[in-house]
Amino acid sequence: MNLKYAEILKINNELKNANLPFYNISVISNITINQIKEILEYTLRKEGINANVEIGDYDNIVQDSAKYKDSNVVIIFWELCNIVDGLQYKIELFDEKKFNDILEKTKAEIDLVLKNLDKTSVVLFNKFTAIPFSGSIKSNLEILADKLNEYIKDKVNIIDLDKVLIKAKNALDLRYYYSYKALYTIKFLKVYSQYIKPYIMSINGKAKKALIFDGDNTLWKGILGESGTIEMSERTKDGIIFSEVQNIALSLNKKGILIGLCSKNNPQDVDKLIDYHPDMKLKRKYITINKSNWLDKVTNLRQIAKELNIGLDSIVFVDDSSFEVNLVREQLPEVMVLQVPERLYEYPQMLRDNIDLFYNLSTSGEDLNRAKMYEEQIRRENVKGKFANIEEYLASLELKLTIFQDDKSAISRLSQMSQKTNQFNLTTERYTETDIKNFMISKKSKVFSFIVSDKFGNSGITGLCIVNIFPQFANIDTFLMSCRIIGRNIEFAFMDYLVDFFSNNDIKRILARYNKTNKSEQVREFYDKCSFSLIGSSSEVRDYELFVNEYKAKKIKYIEVKNGSK
Questions:
Q1: CATH code given to domain 210-358
Q2: What pTM was estimated for this model as a whole?
């Protein structure tokens, strides 16, 4: 945020990666907004997203919506004061008919724009705002903004521009507005880019999944096991800070974020505090993993990632100690580390400012049950040691695989899996709900998904395969599974089902691809194991072919496979 625009230009150019495909973002507007290009590119490239931002023509929103409909993201700056030149002062003299004419004309243009963009992966539409030209008395401009916002509220992803204006503070420069129709300052564009970053991070599978806390002076005030009072009561000056922090963590847990502890304490003391302290809000049922011991934080965080089966880059770690914070940042740069502020009263707001790290564009029922599903997985792992080999253990689980075709009720979950799944993901294509819906309604594609259940519980929708279908051959676009069901041979039973489907629908040949990522190495040879033939390869890509009549089915007897119907 402190970089000058010239510095952003320089660093942004250095971050550009010509060897990777661009993530294309188009900005269409009726306001001069050209400097957002480099600022937004820089903001996203710093996060590993090879963004390429293109700015449409000034005041050409309707035409540009057709021109840029194939972009990964389209951002719409539909500035209220520029709907008609000088609207901010002219509208106060409009009679009712003229007011309604402007309203209806704008609604019709919005409908046309959204129709042009109905197949675009993500559309971000700025909320109409009259703040730049508002006084203390409600104006016609504000009334128009209210009516237009009501009209778009359920049609598109809305960016609350009022919040951005408040955060940016010195957001407006009316000198340039009257000269060049450039209303917003560099400060505003920086804040705006940060504000929309979580949307794009989520789409690209970069949303955080777990919030891990230190204990002493992080979840409570004081040092456990030493003399003195442990404070986290909302009735005390400092305790209320920690009570609020715990409530923020609970609200995230309610949305499916995993909460854990990584604290240097006697584990028995921590257990006692969690179970019996009257002011402890984060009870055992909300804490998915607890690494309270005397090992170093780096070792414990690595173990947390391993046991939760998530990447280190999915973790946000909070600690009060400068030593611990710097140690983790140095040795685990993938982990996002937050330090408790010296001014304690700033602590809750610091967490709120970072809640967007966990933002998911798509939410599903699985999110709400995530903690329960992890508990069931722990029970499975505890039972595993009682069996002589893995096959006996898997046979004991009473596995059931229910497969659905083009299940529209699951669109949110399927989109979410494509955005978040990294380990068992053959191509790592990221899709929005609009994308998944388009696959389902197309006659040239098929979307398969599945639910896995066993004697311990239901893992929910945890698998996805998207197939593009051509005369007599098919191409597997996406094949992925949630990390929490890896190791049960589900993928082979799923492939048996798919090949059988292809055979019954006169598909003679299947093409597939593996795209290498840092996290998907474990599935590099999945298609080899499914009797596909390797027909081309490089360091990053492996291309496969299977003639259906040559497929060697696994026929796993301990997995019951059935068709779902919804």
A1: 3.40.50.1000
A2: 0.78
